[in-house]
Amino acid sequence: MKNLSRRFARTMAAVGLMALAGAFTFNASAQSASTAQQAKPTIVLVHGAFAESSSWDGVIRKLEAKHYPVIAAANPLRGVKSDAADVASIVDAVEGPVVLVGHSYGGSVISSAATGKSNVKALVFVAAFAPEAGESAADLAGKFPGSTLGPALAPPVALADGGKDLYILKNRFHDQFAADVPAAAARLMAATQRPIAESALGEPAGAPAWKTVPSWFVYGDADKNIPPAAQAFMAARAKSVKTVVVKGASHVVMTSRPDVVAKLIVEAASR
Fold this sequence. Notes:
signal, hydrolase activity, Alpha/beta hydrolase fold protein, AB_hydrolase_fold, 2 domains, AB_hydrolase_1, disordered N terminus, Rossmann fold, alpha/beta, 6-stranded parallel beta sheet, 3-stranded antiparallel beta sheet, 12 helices
């Protein structure tokens, strides 16, 4: 019995040592993975008018598969200055480098939010506005022919503060905003669209960060909200590091072609 007890004790001790070694290996691997993830910049995604954070879902899945930390900000869509202040607060709360990505009106927001932020290493404009100081989204949308957004808008919704909110008519949403997205998905997007304050589209932008922060651009050649010619003009003016034009893509290129958009974001984050 004594020999049996000794053998049992030795066996349990060996099992304990193996478990300890396994735990050490697991913790070391987890720490290594965590360190590798922390070394990557945080991607902050900012949606635009008539969209919301879930419009980035496909892009988020692809970025997270490559172990990038991602934040999809809720853009209030109330005004460039105030919206940029909200996004700037998110940037300030992130430890380490940040890549700011903006869609549509969100481009105006990220360009303002990044001004003076030393941890913002890149800007990615996704079918987005990149205004010069004093320019508004409305100015840029009308700079070149091609936008059909005006007739697709519903009658403005009056707000208690005297302002007005803008929505896209549900029966026009698919064709106007998301023509290359399946109809069922476009119906959901129309129902969950976030309105933008009419005044936000006419608000002049402040000093643009794209003059000092490297910028990347991606947009579709079938965009009916922001004319492709306007987006080409803004990309050239910003001296875009790389510009990707997606054949047949609508205004929501990040939803319909998340692989293309995620790839460009990774390029910007890796530079």
